[in-house]
Write a structure and sequence with these properties.
It is built from eight helices and no strands. The chain is mostly helical. The protein has a domain of 128 residues. It is globular. The termini are far apart. Bound molecules: heme C (HEC) (2 copies).
Length: 189
């Protein structure tokens, strides 16, 4: 009845188990350093790259990474560009469609980045946030900074100015170790 195959399978399983138990601490360690350590990607999303998007949606403010909002938010925003936060940001139909397509294809639902997932799960299913800075995840992460502090500081002015405090925001990186909140007197007004 003895089949040498059993022995091979048993050996293979043993090797697998040993490999898994020795690899676990490494994985766990990586998870911990993810909250801040160098090379962490927990607070990084793919930066915006579409040339048309960068040109048309990066002129008044930084070109926000598409993975920072769900598709339904982008869709709603693109449908009302004539009333965009008190500005008229309307675009020719072809450009609008092209940008909307880019945003939808790279929205938080489409991203594998943990940051995109965290933003997404923080939003109640029935809600369509109008901005990144009004998502529950954003509000939670910035609860220690008051709106007044931001508004009164000529070097920040708005929570929408991610790059004022997140030095690597344009690269899609929001790691807490890259945050430098400017003081009101620092830099140029
Ligand atoms: C004419 C200037 C202008 C253009 C062009 C423009 N925006 Fe805006 N956008 C604004 C203003 C003003 C705000 C509000 C900023 C604030 O709250 O300080 C804003 C806010 C936003 C926000 C919310 C930021 C936050 O608070 O989380 C997003 C997202 C956004 N814009 C996307 C876009 C997209 C996509 C396009 C291109 C289709 C675009 N914008 C083009 C002026 C503009
Ligand atoms: C007034 C300065 C300021 C602005 C503007 C700002 N942030 Fe932040 N952000 C912070 C601070 C401070 C923290 C908390 C860092 C910490 O935990 O020590 C933070 C935390 C975060 C985190 C969590 C990072 C981590 O490692 O836990 C994310 C993600 C983030 N911000 C994204 C954004 C985005 C996106 C924008 C723009 C829509 C933005 N922030 C605008 C100051 C700012």
């Amino acid at each position: 009845m003895y089949n040498p195959l059993y022995r091979i399978v048993a050996m293979a399983l043993l090797v697998l188990v040993v490999a898994m138990t020795t690899a676990t601490p490494l994985l766990a360690d990586k998870g911990r350093s993810g909250s801040g350590g160098k090379g962490s990607n927990r607070h990084v999303v793919a930066a915006a790259v579409d040339p048309l998007y960068l040109k048309e949606c990066g002129s008044c403010h930084m070109p926000y990474a598409p993975a920072l909002l769900p598709a339904r938010s982008w869709q709603q925003m693109m449908a009302h560009l004539d009333k965009h936060f008190g500005e008229n940001a309307e675009l020719p139909v072809a450009d609008k469609n092209s940008i909307q397509q880019y945003l939808m294809a790279n929205s938080s639902e489409q991203s594998t980045a943990p940051l995109a997932k965290k933003i997404l799960v923080s939003i109640p299913a029935a809600e369509i946030p109008a901005s990144i800075s009004t998502t529950p995840y954003f509000i939670r992460e910035h609860r220690k900074i008051t709106l007044q502090q931001v508004r009164e500081n000529p070097n920040i002015r708005s929570f929408a100015a991610c790059q004022a405090c997140h030095t690597q925001a344009n690269a899609g990186s929001f790691d807490e170790h890259e945050v430098l909140v400017p003081t009101a007197a620092q830099g140029k007004p």
